[in-house]
Amino acid sequence: MARSTDVRPVIKLRSTGGTGFTYVTRKNRRNDPDRLVLRKYDPVLRRHVDFREDR
After folding, report:
1. pTM value?
2. Taking the chain, what is the end-to-end CA distance rounded to the nearest angstrom?
3. What domain count does the chain have?
4. How far apart are CA 47 and CA 21, in angstroms?
5. CB 20 within 8 A of CB 54
6. What Gene Ontology terms for biological process does this UniProt record contain (predicted)?
């Protein structure tokens, strides 16, 4: 059975701290149709900042 990429696409989460650091993850479009915002660790700033979905 093939993995469906239209329901769970691969997205990039870019730091709002201005460092350009990114995380790569998957999201479920049915549960989160809007752009995803997660609070994660930015190793360049060495603190937690918001990461927003970048398309």
Report:
1. 0.85
2. 27
3. 1
4. 12
5. no
6. translation
Structure tokens at 1: 């059975």
Q: Smallest Cα–Cα separation from 22: which of 46, 43, 47?
A: 43
Residues in the chain: 55
Residue 36 lies in a domain: yes
For residue 1, tell me if it sits in a domain. no
Structural domain for 23, as ranges? 10-54
Task: Using the CB atoms, write b or e for 1-32: b if 16+ within 10 Å.
Answer: eeeeeeeeeebebbbeeeeebeeeeebeeeee
Higher pLDDT, 35 or 7: 35
Residues ≥6 apart with Cβ < 8 Å to 18: none
